[in-house]
Every structure is written in structure tokens, then in C-alpha cells.
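Practice problem 4.
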């Protein structure tokens, strides 16, 4: 069975003609979101029955407007060291937490919690590679209450403990690959 990448769109009212590898289902402009979900599921089943692979929806194509996503990301960056709740993120764009979480995931492809954790890990990597801050301070700077929890989450996301990451980023651990893509080599004495 041949696999073809397929774009799937469900639009309210007449849309543009489908592209070469696209299933497009047009629904009435006044129908409920439940009907829209059912149409998406039906189109997905049709694609599977035809042996086609459905491409994920394009980020930003639906969900929150890009300016609202940027406002949420700016809030996250400004409050990395603090506990951040979905309700706070929703308040920045004047939405209910439930609706915000669905729209954020639809727009970005990841939940607000995953986005927050990813941003915290990015900031932690910068702090670990460019400063000599103790690990407990790095953990606090990126919003973790304990160094143990920070280490657990960091290892799960990065694949190394924070200490090993720091050593490999600085090139002082010959058994770890450097984080800039270069590898350390042992020099025989």
C-alpha cells in the first residue's frame, strides 16, 4: 500500500478548491463545533481507508491568533521563575482556561504546559552553559521548587542531567559529547 502525505481541511462555507493531495469537507457557516469535529473525524477515516497518511494541521492555521500566541509566550518568558498556571496564561488573552488550552494547542501543536516546560528547559540550558550558578539557583531561576525535580525534568527532556550538560557544554567532560555538536577526544599522555 502506497503512503501519500495528505492535507485535510474542514472549512465553514465554500473555501478554495482543494489542492492535489487534499481532502476538503465544506460545512455550513452556522454549524456547531461538534459537527466540525465529526467532519474532521470522517475525513480522517476516509483517508485511512484509502491508505493515505494525514498531515497534522499547520501551526497557526487555526486556534489563537499569532499576536495572542506571542503575548502568551512573552508572559511565559517574563515569569519563568514563578509558578505559572493555565488560568494566568488564559487571562493574558482574555479567554477561559479550557478554551485557551484548546486554542493554544491548535495554534502551536503543543499544550500550554509543554510549551512552558520547553521554554524553561531552553533557559536552563543557557544558564548552565553560560554561567557558574549553582544548580539549585538555576532550578529556582527557571521555576522549579527543588533541584531534584529540576534534575528529573531536565534529564527527561534533554537526555543528560544538568551537571553533565554543563560539563559537556563547557567541554570539560571527555565522556560526554559537547552540546555544540563537537566531540571531545582523549589525548594520550
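Answer key:
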Amino acid at each position: 500500500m502506497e503512503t501519500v502525505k495528505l492535507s485535510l481541511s474542514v472549512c465553514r462555507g465554500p473555501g478554495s478548491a482543494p489542492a492535489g493531495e487534499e481532502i476538503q469537507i465544506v460545512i455550513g457557516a452556522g454549524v456547531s463545533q461538534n459537527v466540525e469535529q465529526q467532519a474532521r473525524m470522517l475525513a480522517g477515516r476516509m483517508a485511512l481507508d484509502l491508505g493515505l497518511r494525514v498531515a497534522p494541521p499547520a501551526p497557526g492555521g487555526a486556534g489563537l491568533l499569532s499576536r495572542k500566541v506571542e503575548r502568551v509566550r512573552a508572559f511565559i518568558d517574563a515569569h519563568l521563575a514563578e509558578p505559572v498556571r493555565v488560568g494566568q496564561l488564559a487571562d493574558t488573552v482574555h479567554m477561559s482556561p479550557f478554551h485557551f488550552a484548546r486554542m493554544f494547542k491548535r495554534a502551536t501543536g503543543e499544550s500550554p504546559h509543554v510549551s512552558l516546560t520547553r521554554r524553561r528547559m531552553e533557559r536552563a540550558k543557557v544558564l548552565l552553559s553560560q554561567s557558574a550558578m549553582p544548580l539549585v539557583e538555576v532550578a529556582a531561576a527557571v521555576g522549579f521548587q527543588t533541584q531534584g525535580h529540576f534534575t528529573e525534568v531536565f534529564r527527561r527532556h534533554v537526555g543528560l542531567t544538568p551537571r553533565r550538560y554543563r560539563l559537556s557544554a563547557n567541554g570539560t567532560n571527555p565522556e560526554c559529547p559537547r552540546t555544540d555538536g563537537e566531540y571531545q577526544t582523549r589525548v594520550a599522555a
